[in-house]
Amino acid sequence: MIETQDKTPAEKDGKYEFKISYAEREITCHVIKDHDILQVHLDNNMNATLKVNADGSVTQTDGTSLPQSSIDFIKKHIFGPNA
What we know:
This protein has 83 residues and is mainly beta.
C-alpha cells in the first residue's frame, strides 16, 4: 500500500519531495520534472526515469524497475489526484 504524509513542491522549478511507502517501508522520493520527463530518486539509492506520454499516461524508460502502483502514485502526486 502506498501512502503519503507530505505533499509539497520543494520549489516552483519542478522539484518535488514527498514520502512514499515502498516495499513495506517509508522512504523519501525526490522528483525533478523537466517538460515530459520525471527523474525519480528513491531513498538515495534507486533511480528511475519516467516519461509523460501525449495521452497523459506515464511509462518508465530507464532505471530501477518500479511497480506500476508506484508509478501511478508518483504521477498523481505530481499532477494531482485526477491525473
